[in-house]
Amino acid sequence: MTFTRSDTGNVLILWDVDHTLIETRGVGRAAFAAAFEQVTGQSLERMPHITGRTEPDIYAAVVELHGIQEPPPFPAFADALATAYIERQDQLRERGRVMPGAEQSLAHLGSCPGIRQSVLTGNTRQVTRIKLETFGLQAYLDLDSGAYGDDNGHRPSLVAIAQARASTSGDEFDRRNTVLIGDSQGDIDTAHLGGAHVIAVAAGGTPMADLSAADVALADLTDTFEVERSIELVTNRAR
Ligand SMILES: [Mg+2]
């Protein structure tokens, strides 16, 4: 089966990163703790719920949880976080993993005419690149067209940012031809509020039953043709 939308224009796929493409399995938490300790001088005692949130949003919540009155600005934390990831890159490669079917799906969609692939993530731009390069996934993605936590702490605002960045090459991307692929309610809300279709993948830990607000929910990414068909379905439905 081949992707049949090339006659109706291109499609922009925006991948969530954590628990959709990869999992750090504790390395991300360790990097966050190290960066937090470095910039605030305090040890990390507690974390809020972080799934589906952006890094500046998480940082602000953690600072508040620890009662820090005048926190160092987010960019200082973001730099420390990138350094902490670089220091742990070997550990990330060993302990983390690529989600089942993720690389095959990236490769398959990359071979389909009319599909552009980038990311929409709460991670900072620097950390996103480190995570993807650690697992060799960056080659499948146009990271310049992505939107990141350090672009805007309000995750739904990232959809328009990515669409604008991807549109500069002559293609126009909007609600009708943008598909977000993620693993959480935060991704579903981001797509609905920001203006995109959304495919949710349960392999990241959120049960299928809790992903019913997505346009399509998949158990995992192992059936690459099912992933392709889902993109076709949600984009054609909108016409
Ligand atoms: Mg996620």
Concise overview:
It holds the Pfam family HAD. By secondary structure, this protein is an alpha/beta fold. It has nine helices and seven strands.
Describe the 3D structure.
This is Haloacid dehalogenase-like hydrolase. It comes from Nocardia tengchongensis. InterPro entries: HAD-like_hydrolase_sf, HAD-like_sf, HAD_sf, PGP-like_dom2. Pfam families: HAD (PF12710). The chain has 239 residues and is α/β, with parallel strands linked by helices. The protein folds into 2 domains: 6-23 and 97-237, HAD superfamily/HAD-like (Rossmann fold), CATH 3.40.50.1000; 27-94. The chain has 9 helices and 7 strands, in the order E-E-H-H-H-H-E-H-E-H-H-E-H-E-E-H. The chain has helices at residues 27-40, 55-65, 74-87, 89-95, 102-110, 125-134, 157-167, 185-194, 224-237; strands at residues 11-15, 22-23, 97-98, 115-119, 178-182, 197-201, 216-218. The strands form 2 sheets. A 5-stranded parallel sheet has the order 4-1-5-6-7, sandwiched between helices. Strands 2-3 form a two-stranded antiparallel ribbon. The mean pLDDT is 94. The chain binds magnesium ion. Magnesium ion is lined by residues 16, 18-20, 182-184, 204.
Mean pLDDT over the residues: 94
CATH superfamily of the largest domain: HAD superfamily/HAD-like
Structural class: alpha/beta
Beta fraction? 5-15%
The poorly predicted ranges are none
- At CATH level 2, the architecture of the largest domain is 3-Layer(aba) Sandwich
| Unique bound compounds | magnesium ion
Could you give a short account of the major beta sheet?
5 strands, parallel
Determine the number of helices (DSSP H or I, runs of at least 4 residues): 9
Shape type: globular
Protein name: Haloacid dehalogenase-like hydrolase
Organism: Nocardia tengchongensis
Pfam family, one: HAD
